[in-house]
Model the fold of this input.
Amino acid sequence: MTVADHLRLGAWLNPGWDDHLARQRISQLALNPKQRAGSLSGGQRAQLALTLALAKRPGLLILDEPVASLDPLARREFLQGLMEAVAGQRLSVLLSSHLVADLERVCDYLIVLVASRVRVAGEVSDLLASHHRLSGPRRDPATLPAGQEVITESHTDKQSRLLIRTDRPVLDPAWAVTPVSLEDLVLAYMSRAGDDGPASPQRLKVAS
Done:
């Protein structure tokens, strides 16, 4: 099927099809309507798929690893187009991805699932603000003040490195406190996959 065939099929199958949007995106992407979809590059196929999804004018778009097979430039262009659609169409997107660096650029709400369980969930900005990396003289994590939850820990004979979650300032001068990236945070919770204890209570919501 050609690119134009996909557009015609989309219009036939979807009563709410926005043909103007679809053709506008195809033009902006410089895709040849007569070209067979199978001969497009990986990035072009991803953009065509996104175009077909957006032209349906959905309220919620669910994407499962949409950029996993794309090169960095194609990933950036795809995510840029997606964010423009979110802003222009008031669209909510549920995005599943292992490419955490991409999530940090485009997502405002994060849910980390490990072994089908929610390990952490919340606004990305709030999660980054409440997690800290501590390094200092070796210490038993059990001696930390109340309200400082240890997510991961590592120790040498003389030093401890902890990733903690807390809503309070870390006032102990013995600790060097540094911020964490979203990737640090996600990997920390994923490394607790063998922990069968209860995860921190989280209230899940759909972010628009």
The radius of gyration is 22 Å.
